[in-house]
Amino acid sequence: MLICNNIILFIIYEVRGIRGFSKLKYLKKEIMLSKFDSEDYAFDTESGELIKMSRRLIYVFGEEIKNVLQNIDSFETALFDYKKHPITKKKHSIEQGKEYKSDCLIKIGNDFLEIRDVFWRDFSNGQIKGNLFLKDVRENDTLTWEAILMNLDKFPNPFMIFDSQLQEVLLANRKIIDLIPIELLDIEICPPISKFFKDHDCYLKILDWLKGSETFLTESVHLKLGENQSKWFKIEMHKVSLDGLSCVSVNLIDINPIVEIEKKLTRSNKLLNELVKIQQKFLEAEKFDEPFSELLQIILGQSDASMGFIGRVNISDKVRLKLDAVSDFSNHSMKSKKLFNSFKNKGFLFEHPDNFIEDSILSKEVLIINNFPSGRKIDNEIMGHPKLKNFMAIPILNENEVVGLIGLANKVNDFGQDDVDTLEPLLSFYKTLINVVRIREESSEFKRLKTEKEFLLSSTLENTHDLIFILDEDYNVEFFSNAFSVILGEMASSKIYDMVQRILRRKSIAGKKIIKVREEIKNPSSSIWLDLSLDIIRNDNGEPKKLLGIAKDTTDMVNYQKKLEEALEKEKNINSFKSQFLSIVSHEFKTPLTIMKSSLDILNIYAKSIDQPTEVKPKIFKKILKIENEVNMLNRLVNEVLRLELMESGNFSIKKKKIKTGAFIEKVVGKFNLADKVKLSNNIPLNHEVNWDPVLMESVIENLIENAVKYGGDKPFDFRSYQDGGQVILEVEDYGIGIPPNEVENIFNPFYRAKNSENFKGTGFGLVAVEKFIFQHDGHIKVSSKLGKGTKFIIVI
Fold first, then answer.
1. Nearest Cα to 496, choosing from 465, 467, 461, 525?
2. Helix (H), strand (E) at residue 286
3. Cβ contact 569:585 at 8 Å
4. Confidence category of residue 763, pLDDT binned at 50, 70, 90
5. What is residue 458's predicted lDDT score, i.e. its pLDDT?
6. How far apart are CA 464 and CA 466, in angstroms?
7. Contact of 313 with 319, CB cutoff 8 Å
8. CB neighbours (10 Å) of residue 113?
9. Crossing angle for the helix pair 576-609 and 417-461, nearest 10 degrees?
10. Of 126, 291, 542, 692, which has the maximum CB count within 10 A?
11. How far apart are CA 517 and CA 101, in angstroms?
């Protein structure tokens, strides 16, 4: 590759720094100046005589532009709209200090060219001034060396011009010379251009383009340029004619920061997807070996360690480490196989005192060793253990208690604090899984204690009076035993009635023949706990006639076994493991979600500061927005799951307050910016007020709108609100895929999703939350749907 030294030295001498951010983007279309020192044209307001025409217009439009700009009349006569109709003359009506823009066509010779005309009126000089920008391609234009040289120092990117075969550099600016990893004295013996491409196939693609008819080529390429000898560039190549000579212009745009950001975003998305899969396996698995092994592989991949383990810690009289997953080192040697099988037979339970594993657990601090041998027991006394190059131990803390340990070894480079920072989301995730496993293991112990408790309770009841009551078909108390008077006092009948009414209002007991619950009755000075069994007595026709209730006073047992009370199921149809798992996962996910959100904010600020072409930045922000939407969706899901779990456990406190109904609805709907999608019909008076929990009702409306958008088939949907007597009615109706008739009754069940929604993202929790939150407001929801025609939800509160 040969470079004309005279041209290069001229360029080096002339370059005085870059101002502005414009560039020579389309050589065949126009030469864009980085800053306009003056207007392109100026006409006398009264006479219409041409006072000034810039030389740039001749470079862009050719000599024929002089005929068009003879005077203001000839100029306006040459302007047409896109249907080639003459444009109404406006220049005499423009105001002082106001700038006008017009996208139109200009007729030069027999050609119509697409332009932007920016013009204004200068009253102080009595002139009409403006600038013309060419937007359309002029296939027959020929650029000049003079035009290029005039603007070369304004190009913000490395830029050069080759001959038509890419064999010789005819022109280059200082920026490209700074990137070439050779001295200027050696520039005549510069290697062929192919040597600068890391991907030879990309170079071959450029050669194929040279042979074809296409005039423009843009590619993302990995070039051996710059200080680091390897950077990503967006290369823009044009086949152009300079004073009749066929040439190829090359414009390089540094996209290395963007590539790095995309890599980080890809890794983050991949990690999040993998953790979601592991979470799902924990929900479904009876044993946790497989998901724990997958988690270990993710940790190894994130840290670049070749071996490691994850395990739960129990500290009593000595440190005990029960491994959940460990790298298989049995194939290293016969001694390694023997040692590994020995650990396996013991259930991977490690009880080796006075080693660096114990050091990390007892100190509750991260331990990093990068200079083995360390003199500790595990690396020089355990026969068959793999040789260690380096090691890092990370204790998992639950408050101030060490509940687990992650050990990693034999990383190519040294371990450091950056490895701990990288693994932070995985540490929180593993801590959550440890708590889940603890709950599962404690359940068997709970069953054993429950059997003992029932035996103790039955023995106790043999020496006490039974608590019995009977209610008629209207739930009026007909009879209750004297034992109720002893524990409830004179108001026993009223308290029994209130207690039964409270139980029967719960939707969770619907359809049950025998209802068994544990109920608390509060007295001024104490609380009484009763285990209740309610049995509906029916006549021969199956009609309910009586309600028999048998209660046992379990106050002493509840107070004595308070820890067991927290784990006891209150309703038979809820799986205890899944409920507690969701609660724990939701709480522990809030920390990594907060970290992700703050990291996205920082990434957004960083992306805004990157000096890149305008066509690149939107791609960055689009990806950031996509991740941010997913994080926000997951955060809202976590909050809804938490509220649902609290409602089911009876620990949720609804926070109602007076709000303006109509304004509240318009505010929530407006958050979605769906003016072209939603047909809002808000017929509630502006002064109407309701007593709602705004957080819950906002979640209800958001879930229904998101479903309408998601399943509406990209069609507009209706949102109606109105009053009916003392009730507020909300209707959300879409015209999308609808719900299969045999599946409508199941859509409010947790985790349930209709078969025709499998291609849409979702968890099956949204409508569950909607129903629960509406119920908290003493309201109800109805749904009607036709397959392929849409779905309508009606909320009545």
1. 467
2. none
3. no
4. low
5. 46
6. 7
7. yes
8. 18
9. 160
10. 692
11. 75
Distance CA 129, CA 52 (A): 9
Give me Rg for the CA atoms of the chain: 38
| 704 burial via Cβ count (<10 Å: 0-12, 13-18, 19+) | buried
Q: Do 30 and 14 form a contact (C-beta atoms < 8 A)?
A: no
Residues 6+ apart with CB under 8 A from 714: none
The tokens describing 649, both together, are 């456990």
Give just the sign of the alpha carbon dihedral 732, 776, 670, 635. negative
| Residue 64 DSSP label | T
If pLDDT is split at 50, 70 and 90, which confidence band does 586 have? low
Strands 401-411 and 305-315: antiparallel
What is the CA angle 750-754-756, rounded to 5? Answer: 155
CA distance 458 to 452: 10
Cα dist from 478 to 469, 474, 485, 548, 702, whole Å: 8, 10, 14, 10, 48
| CB-based burial label for 392 (10 Å; 0-12, 13-18, 19+) | buried
> How many Cβ atoms are within 10 Å of 296's Cβ, its own excluded?
23
CA distance 238 to 478: 96
CA distance 427 to 405: 9
Identify the residue whose tokens are 């196939």. Answer: 201
Residue 700 near residue 676 (C-beta atoms within 8 A): no
What is the C-alpha to C-alpha distance for residues 430 and 311, in angstroms, rounded to an integer?
10
Q: Report the amino acid identity of residue 236.
A: E
DSSP H or E stretch at residue 170 = strand 168-172
CA distances (Å), 790 to each of 163, 699, 719, 769, 785, in order?
A: 62, 22, 14, 21, 6
Neighbours of 396 (CB within 10 A): 21
Distance CA 134, CA 65 (A): 12
Closest by CA to 730, choosing from 664, 776, 686, 786, is 664
Q: Would you state the structure tokens that stand for residue 201, as one six-digit string?
A: 């196939």
pLDDT mean over 755-776: 78
**What is the distance, to the nearest Å, from the Cα of residue 576 to the centroid of all Cα atoms in its chain?**
30
In this structure, what token pair is assigned to residue 300? 């190894």
Tell me the residue type at 77: T
The answer to whether 65 touches 108, Cβ cutoff 8 Å, is yes
- How far is it, in rounded angstroms, from Cα 456 to Cα 560? 12
Backbone angles phi, psi at 668, to 5 degrees: -65, -45
Categorize the per-residue pLDDT at 27 as very low, low, confident or very high, splitting at 50, 70 and 90. very low
**Residue 375 predicted with pLDDT over 60:** no
Torsion of CA 625, 627, 633, 639, to 10 degrees: -120
Q: What is the pTM of this model?
A: 0.34
Could you write out the three-class secondary structure of 509-577? Answer: HCCCCEEEEEEEEECCCCEEEEEEEEEEEECCCCCEEEEEEEEEECHHHHHHCHHHHHHCCCCCCCCHH
CA dihedral over 138, 141, 145, 151, signed as positive or negative: negative
Distance of alpha carbon 78 from its chain centroid, rounded? Answer: 52
Quote the longest CA-to-CA distance of the chain: 119
Q: Which two tokens stand for residue 609?
A: 């500061």
